[in-house]
Specification:
By secondary structure, the chain is of the alpha/beta class. The protein is built from nine helices and seven strands, in the order βαβαβαβαβαβααβαα. The chain has a single domain, classed as Rossmann fold. A seven-stranded parallel beta sheet has the order 3-2-1-4-5-6-7, sandwiched between helices. The chain binds NADP nicotinamide-adenine-dinucleotide phosphate.
Protein backbone atom coordinates (compact mmCIF):
# COMPACT_ATOMS: atom_id res chain seq x y z
CA UNK A 1 0.00 0.00 0.00
CA UNK A 2 0.99 3.62 -0.42
CA UNK A 3 1.80 5.09 2.99
CA UNK A 4 0.63 8.63 2.21
CA UNK A 5 -2.53 10.24 0.88
CA UNK A 6 -4.92 7.80 2.58
CA UNK A 7 -7.75 8.17 5.04
CA UNK A 8 -6.82 5.69 7.76
CA UNK A 9 -9.02 4.34 10.56
CA UNK A 10 -7.11 2.75 13.47
CA UNK A 11 -8.91 0.91 16.27
CA UNK A 12 -7.28 1.21 19.68
CA UNK A 13 -5.40 4.26 18.46
CA UNK A 14 -5.24 5.99 21.82
CA UNK A 15 -2.22 4.10 23.18
CA UNK A 16 0.68 1.82 22.38
CA UNK A 17 1.13 0.45 18.87
CA UNK A 18 -2.15 1.94 17.59
CA UNK A 19 -1.16 5.42 18.70
CA UNK A 20 2.34 4.95 17.30
CA UNK A 21 0.92 3.93 13.92
CA UNK A 22 -1.58 6.81 14.01
CA UNK A 23 1.20 9.34 14.58
CA UNK A 24 3.39 7.77 11.88
CA UNK A 25 0.56 7.81 9.31
CA UNK A 26 -0.32 11.39 10.25
CA UNK A 27 3.31 12.47 9.79
CA UNK A 28 3.29 10.91 6.29
CA UNK A 29 0.38 13.05 5.09
CA UNK A 30 -2.58 10.78 5.77
CA UNK A 31 -5.90 11.75 7.33
CA UNK A 32 -6.11 9.60 10.45
CA UNK A 33 -9.07 8.67 12.64
CA UNK A 34 -8.46 6.75 15.85
CA UNK A 35 -10.98 4.85 17.93
CA UNK A 36 -10.94 3.68 21.52
CA UNK A 37 -13.10 3.46 24.59
CA UNK A 38 -11.18 5.60 27.04
CA UNK A 39 -12.26 9.17 26.34
CA UNK A 40 -9.46 10.82 28.35
CA UNK A 41 -6.77 8.85 26.52
CA UNK A 42 -8.35 9.78 23.18
CA UNK A 43 -8.50 13.46 24.12
CA UNK A 44 -4.86 13.42 25.21
CA UNK A 45 -3.82 11.74 21.93
CA UNK A 46 -5.75 14.27 19.83
CA UNK A 47 -4.36 17.20 21.84
CA UNK A 48 -0.83 15.97 21.18
CA UNK A 49 -1.48 15.46 17.46
CA UNK A 50 -3.21 18.37 15.71
CA UNK A 51 -5.33 17.14 12.81
CA UNK A 52 -5.94 13.71 14.30
CA UNK A 53 -9.62 12.73 14.61
CA UNK A 54 -11.03 10.47 17.31
CA UNK A 55 -14.28 8.53 17.60
CA UNK A 56 -15.50 6.33 20.42
CA UNK A 57 -16.00 2.66 19.58
CA UNK A 58 -16.15 -0.43 21.74
CA UNK A 59 -15.27 -3.23 19.34
CA UNK A 60 -17.00 -5.71 21.68
CA UNK A 61 -20.39 -4.23 20.77
CA UNK A 62 -21.77 -5.57 17.44
CA UNK A 63 -24.59 -2.99 17.28
CA UNK A 64 -22.13 -0.15 17.91
CA UNK A 65 -19.87 -1.49 15.15
CA UNK A 66 -22.72 -1.57 12.62
CA UNK A 67 -23.78 1.99 13.49
CA UNK A 68 -20.17 3.16 13.56
CA UNK A 69 -19.54 1.67 10.12
CA UNK A 70 -22.37 3.72 8.62
CA UNK A 71 -21.34 6.91 10.42
CA UNK A 72 -17.64 6.73 9.61
CA UNK A 73 -18.15 6.30 5.85
CA UNK A 74 -20.70 9.13 5.88
CA UNK A 75 -18.38 11.46 7.78
CA UNK A 76 -15.18 10.29 6.03
CA UNK A 77 -16.17 9.22 2.50
CA UNK A 78 -12.53 8.94 1.42
CA UNK A 79 -11.82 6.29 4.09
CA UNK A 80 -9.69 3.65 2.39
CA UNK A 81 -7.52 2.01 5.08
CA UNK A 82 -8.71 0.06 8.13
CA UNK A 83 -6.21 -0.97 10.80
CA UNK A 84 -7.67 -3.61 13.15
CA UNK A 85 -5.35 -2.98 16.08
CA UNK A 86 -7.47 -2.93 19.29
CA UNK A 87 -6.71 -5.91 21.48
CA UNK A 88 -6.46 -7.28 25.00
CA UNK A 89 -4.06 -9.80 26.54
CA UNK A 90 -4.91 -11.53 29.82
CA UNK A 91 -3.36 -14.45 31.63
CA UNK A 92 -5.58 -17.53 32.02
CA UNK A 93 -5.47 -20.64 34.15
CA UNK A 94 -7.38 -23.19 32.11
CA UNK A 95 -7.63 -25.47 35.16
CA UNK A 96 -9.97 -23.09 37.02
CA UNK A 97 -12.91 -23.95 34.79
CA UNK A 98 -13.97 -20.41 33.92
CA UNK A 99 -14.28 -19.12 30.36
CA UNK A 100 -14.76 -15.39 30.98
CA UNK A 101 -11.31 -14.34 29.80
CA UNK A 102 -11.49 -16.63 26.77
CA UNK A 103 -14.83 -15.17 25.72
CA UNK A 104 -13.71 -11.57 26.26
CA UNK A 105 -10.49 -12.17 24.34
CA UNK A 106 -12.22 -13.79 21.38
CA UNK A 107 -14.79 -10.97 21.35
CA UNK A 108 -12.21 -8.17 21.24
CA UNK A 109 -9.32 -9.73 19.32
CA UNK A 110 -11.14 -11.88 16.78
CA UNK A 111 -14.82 -10.96 16.48
CA UNK A 112 -13.98 -7.24 16.71
CA UNK A 113 -11.82 -7.24 13.55
CA UNK A 114 -14.18 -9.63 11.73
CA UNK A 115 -17.23 -7.47 12.50
CA UNK A 116 -15.62 -4.12 11.72
CA UNK A 117 -14.11 -5.43 8.49
CA UNK A 118 -17.50 -6.81 7.45
CA UNK A 119 -19.09 -3.42 8.16
CA UNK A 120 -16.51 -1.51 6.09
CA UNK A 121 -15.61 -3.92 3.30
CA UNK A 122 -18.34 -2.80 0.84
CA UNK A 123 -17.11 0.79 1.21
CA UNK A 124 -13.44 -0.23 0.95
CA UNK A 125 -14.08 -2.27 -2.20
CA UNK A 126 -15.62 0.82 -3.80
CA UNK A 127 -12.37 2.78 -3.33
CA UNK A 128 -9.77 2.86 -6.10
CA UNK A 129 -7.13 1.67 -3.66
CA UNK A 130 -7.78 0.29 -0.18
CA UNK A 131 -6.24 -1.85 2.54
CA UNK A 132 -7.17 -3.82 5.64
CA UNK A 133 -4.30 -4.16 8.11
CA UNK A 134 -4.75 -6.76 10.83
CA UNK A 135 -2.49 -6.70 13.88
CA UNK A 136 -1.65 -10.26 14.91
CA UNK A 137 1.41 -11.18 17.01
CA UNK A 138 4.56 -13.26 17.05
CA UNK A 139 2.57 -15.38 19.53
CA UNK A 140 0.37 -16.43 16.60
CA UNK A 141 3.29 -18.59 15.48
CA UNK A 142 4.73 -19.83 18.79
CA UNK A 143 2.31 -19.48 21.75
CA UNK A 144 2.98 -18.76 25.42
CA UNK A 145 1.09 -20.99 27.82
CA UNK A 146 0.05 -18.17 30.21
CA UNK A 147 -2.04 -16.64 27.42
CA UNK A 148 -3.97 -19.50 25.74
CA UNK A 149 -6.91 -17.57 24.29
CA UNK A 150 -4.80 -14.55 23.36
CA UNK A 151 -2.40 -16.72 21.33
CA UNK A 152 -5.30 -18.60 19.76
CA UNK A 153 -7.00 -15.38 18.63
CA UNK A 154 -3.76 -14.15 17.07
CA UNK A 155 -3.25 -17.44 15.23
CA UNK A 156 -6.84 -17.07 14.03
CA UNK A 157 -6.15 -13.52 12.83
CA UNK A 158 -3.19 -14.85 10.83
CA UNK A 159 -5.36 -17.52 9.22
CA UNK A 160 -8.29 -15.18 8.63
CA UNK A 161 -6.01 -12.57 7.04
CA UNK A 162 -4.74 -15.16 4.58
CA UNK A 163 -8.24 -16.13 3.51
CA UNK A 164 -9.44 -12.51 3.35
CA UNK A 165 -6.40 -11.71 1.17
CA UNK A 166 -7.28 -14.56 -1.13
CA UNK A 167 -10.93 -13.50 -1.40
CA UNK A 168 -9.92 -9.89 -2.08
CA UNK A 169 -7.28 -10.77 -4.69
CA UNK A 170 -9.26 -9.37 -7.64
CA UNK A 171 -10.42 -6.25 -5.83
CA UNK A 172 -8.83 -2.94 -4.88
CA UNK A 173 -8.43 -4.14 -1.26
CA UNK A 174 -4.99 -5.22 -0.12
CA UNK A 175 -4.84 -7.33 3.05
CA UNK A 176 -1.80 -6.89 5.26
CA UNK A 177 -0.92 -8.64 8.50
CA UNK A 178 1.22 -6.83 11.04
CA UNK A 179 2.81 -9.29 13.49
CA UNK A 180 4.57 -7.43 16.30
CA UNK A 181 7.13 -9.02 18.61
CA UNK A 182 7.10 -8.20 22.35
CA UNK A 183 6.89 -4.37 22.42
CA UNK A 184 6.99 -1.84 25.28
CA UNK A 185 3.30 -0.95 25.70
CA UNK A 186 0.69 -1.19 28.47
CA UNK A 187 -0.90 -4.29 26.89
CA UNK A 188 -0.31 -6.42 29.98
CA UNK A 189 0.41 -3.50 32.32
CA UNK A 190 3.13 -1.19 33.56
CA UNK A 191 5.83 -3.87 33.74
CA UNK A 192 5.65 -4.50 29.99
CA UNK A 193 5.88 -0.80 29.17
CA UNK A 194 9.25 -0.57 30.89
CA UNK A 195 10.56 -4.10 30.28
CA UNK A 196 14.07 -3.84 28.79
CA UNK A 197 13.47 -7.19 27.05
CA UNK A 198 10.59 -5.69 25.06
CA UNK A 199 11.24 -3.71 21.87
CA UNK A 200 11.02 0.06 22.39
CA UNK A 201 7.78 1.31 20.81
CA UNK A 202 9.39 4.04 18.68
CA UNK A 203 11.88 1.55 17.20
CA UNK A 204 9.06 -0.86 16.48
CA UNK A 205 6.99 1.80 14.68
CA UNK A 206 9.98 3.03 12.63
CA UNK A 207 10.87 -0.49 11.45
CA UNK A 208 7.21 -1.30 10.77
CA UNK A 209 6.65 1.80 8.62
CA UNK A 210 9.84 1.01 6.65
CA UNK A 211 8.57 -2.53 6.07
CA UNK A 212 5.19 -1.15 4.93
CA UNK A 213 6.93 1.22 2.52
CA UNK A 214 8.87 -1.74 1.08
CA UNK A 215 5.53 -3.39 0.17
CA UNK A 216 6.45 -7.05 0.78
CA UNK A 217 4.81 -9.53 -1.59
CA UNK A 218 3.88 -11.80 1.33
CA UNK A 219 1.52 -9.20 2.78
CA UNK A 220 3.15 -9.66 6.19
CA UNK A 221 4.85 -6.82 8.02
CA UNK A 222 7.56 -8.35 10.16
CA UNK A 223 10.36 -6.65 12.10
CA UNK A 224 13.61 -8.54 12.68
CA UNK A 225 12.76 -9.26 16.32
CA UNK A 226 9.74 -11.36 15.37
CA UNK A 227 11.66 -13.66 13.00
CA UNK A 228 12.47 -15.92 16.00
CA UNK A 229 8.77 -16.83 16.25
CA UNK A 230 7.59 -16.31 12.68
CA UNK A 231 10.17 -18.60 11.11
CA UNK A 232 10.61 -21.15 13.95
CA UNK A 233 8.60 -23.87 12.22
CA UNK A 234 10.04 -23.26 8.74
CA UNK A 235 13.57 -23.35 10.14
CA UNK A 236 12.98 -26.59 12.05
CA UNK A 237 13.41 -25.07 15.53
CA UNK A 238 9.78 -24.88 16.69
CA UNK A 239 10.24 -27.11 19.76
CA UNK A 240 13.26 -25.10 20.87
CA UNK A 241 11.40 -21.79 20.36
CA UNK A 242 8.34 -23.08 22.24
CA UNK A 243 10.54 -24.27 25.12
CA UNK A 244 12.37 -20.95 25.28
CA UNK A 245 9.18 -18.86 25.31
CA UNK A 246 7.63 -21.10 27.96
CA UNK A 247 10.68 -21.57 30.19
N1 LIG B 1 2.76 -4.83 22.79
C1 LIG B 1 3.05 -6.04 22.38
O1 LIG B 1 4.01 -6.68 22.86
C2 LIG B 1 2.26 -6.67 21.27
C3 LIG B 1 2.81 -7.78 20.64
C4 LIG B 1 2.07 -8.39 19.63
C5 LIG B 1 0.84 -7.90 19.28
N2 LIG B 1 0.34 -6.80 19.92
C6 LIG B 1 -0.99 -6.33 19.51
O2 LIG B 1 -0.94 -4.95 19.25
C7 LIG B 1 -2.25 -4.40 19.43
C8 LIG B 1 -2.15 -3.13 20.25
O3 LIG B 1 -1.72 -3.46 21.55
P1 LIG B 1 -0.71 -2.55 22.40
O4 LIG B 1 0.44 -3.38 22.73
O5 LIG B 1 -0.53 -1.25 21.74
O6 LIG B 1 -1.55 -2.41 23.75
P2 LIG B 1 -2.33 -1.18 24.44
O7 LIG B 1 -1.45 0.00 24.56
O8 LIG B 1 -2.97 -1.77 25.64
O9 LIG B 1 -3.44 -0.83 23.35
C9 LIG B 1 -4.60 -1.59 23.21
C10 LIG B 1 -5.65 -0.71 22.56
O10 LIG B 1 -6.81 -1.52 22.31
C11 LIG B 1 -7.95 -0.77 22.70
N3 LIG B 1 -9.03 -1.67 23.08
C12 LIG B 1 -8.98 -2.76 23.89
N4 LIG B 1 -10.21 -3.31 23.99
C13 LIG B 1 -11.03 -2.55 23.22
C14 LIG B 1 -12.41 -2.61 22.90
N5 LIG B 1 -13.22 -3.55 23.40
N6 LIG B 1 -12.92 -1.67 22.07
C15 LIG B 1 -12.14 -0.71 21.57
N7 LIG B 1 -10.83 -0.59 21.81
C16 LIG B 1 -10.28 -1.51 22.65
C17 LIG B 1 -7.48 0.08 23.87
O11 LIG B 1 -8.33 1.22 23.96
P3 LIG B 1 -8.99 1.66 25.38
O12 LIG B 1 -7.83 1.93 26.27
O13 LIG B 1 -9.76 2.87 25.03
O14 LIG B 1 -9.82 0.50 25.80
C18 LIG B 1 -6.07 0.45 23.45
O15 LIG B 1 -6.09 1.61 22.65
C19 LIG B 1 -3.09 -5.49 20.08
O16 LIG B 1 -3.88 -6.13 19.10
C20 LIG B 1 -2.06 -6.46 20.59
O17 LIG B 1 -2.53 -7.77 20.69
C21 LIG B 1 1.03 -6.17 20.90
Amino acid sequence: MQTSGNTVLITGGNSGIGRGLAEAFLARGNDVIITGRDRSKMEATVAANPGLKALELDVDDPKAIAAFGQKVVRDFPTLNVLVNNAGIMRTENLADGSTGIAEATIMTNLLGPIRLTAALLPHLQAQASAAVLNVSSGLAFVPRSEFPSYCATKAAIHSWSQTLRRQMRDTSVEVIEIAPPYVQTMLTGEAQASDPNAMPLDEYITETMSALEAQPQSGEILVKRVFFQRWAEREGRYDEAFARLNA
